[in-house]
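Reminder: ligand-aware prediction takes two inputs, not one.
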Amino acid sequence: MNNNLNILIAGQGGREHALARALKESSSQPRLFAFPGSDGMNEVAPRLAVPQGQDLFETLKQESFDLCVVGPEQYLVEGWADRCRALNIRAWGPGADGVQLESSKAFAKDFMVRHGIPTARSTLVHSADELRNSITEYPCVLKYDGLAAGKGVSICRTEKEADDFIRRVFQEQRFGEGSVLLEQYLEGPEVSIITSVSDGAWHAFPPARDYKRLRENDQGPNTGGMGAVASRDLLSEEEHARIRKDIIIPAVEGLQKDGIPYRGFLYFGLMLTSAGPMVLEFNCRFGDPEAQAILPLVEGDLAGYLYEAANGDLQPDRIGFAEGWSVCVVMAAGRYPEASGKGETIEGLDRIGQADVFHAGTQRGIHNTFETNGGRILGVTARGTTREQAVQSVYEQVAKIEFSGAQYRGDIGRLHFEESIANKRAGQGARGKSL
Ligand code: AMP
Ligand code: GLY
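Here is what comes back for the chain with glycine:
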């Protein structure tokens, strides 16, 4: 294999910073660039300069890039992986066919049904009236059939909540035109499994759980994610085996059977119901903030691994995963998620000890210090032999960082653990009756 691979990381958020850091630590020592990149990740992956009038992809070709790792779903939907491949540049991320697993809930549901992958029962509806007539019980789950920046899913406990969703989707057309998937309501702990898929081969990263609500105890509005915890020990051996057998293998074989080429990360958003693990969603990329918890556990040669996998030759042995636990706490701007605090100086980054700090929404201010740039600002990740150690360690570091209005949760890595998951699971289940 080439020495010193030239790799572009497409994106600019916390996930891309975590990818850049993990790639930088690869034993093969790649040369990294980012596009558009960010001030925060500039040190590990400087911004690629694209000459005026030139296309990004032409630049990659001209500069002999070996690999483009595409971070965000939006770029994948826009066809960045296909654009690279058309120019013979290796890309990590699916093309137009594969990306539908994330961009269309109806496509994903048909795929699961076709390949016997356990998931909630559902009906696809095309109008407000059809939807009203199809709801037979509450709670029910309504999902807009397209990308909606995490705002297209509503768990409706009452008719009023369903009416609000119907108004937003069909009358106001907040997300554009489209259909809605009416889905059976499931209960149980959630887990994110991220795999690398290269044609028929796959390899799973350690499982993670993210915390989507703004406030402690899973209260407040949904966000892009306020933290995550990752460890092989998040699941029992039986759970790992069942997820492999019932979900990952049928999905990877399903892609093959359907003739959908797929080289990239494939994310399974699962719910562990009393009837077994079920798929809530697929994403065709690494999760964020899961990336910020999982990627610090990676050892070995991630750069060589992704390069070979993008070439259709997935070699799991090129990387390993540290034992123990990793916890990422997200620090968000004041007034997030409704509005975005910007321009506040961030203090304390120079005092951080045994932890990784990933920049999601920062920029360098006039004195060259980092300041907030809106949304989720930073992810702070620490590791520990035990979950308790990782939690203690991450909060020691978080306490050193200050900026005006900072919001973060104090229960990341604790909620959903400190009452036993086993007990929780025993009391819950796939409560759905037929729709
Ligand atoms: P999705 O974008 O499909 O993953 O949905 C976002 C979130 O909504 C999930 O992480 C779950 O917390 C919740 N959710 C999705 N589908 C269901 C379901 N069928 N039953 C209960 N909660 C769900
Ligand atoms: N953390 C969930 C996602 O990346 O979609």
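The mean pLDDT is 93. The pocket of adenosine monophosphate (ligand 1) is lined by residues 120, 141, 143, 153, 155, 183-186, 190, 269, 280-281 (CB under 6 Å). We will return to this case in the review session.
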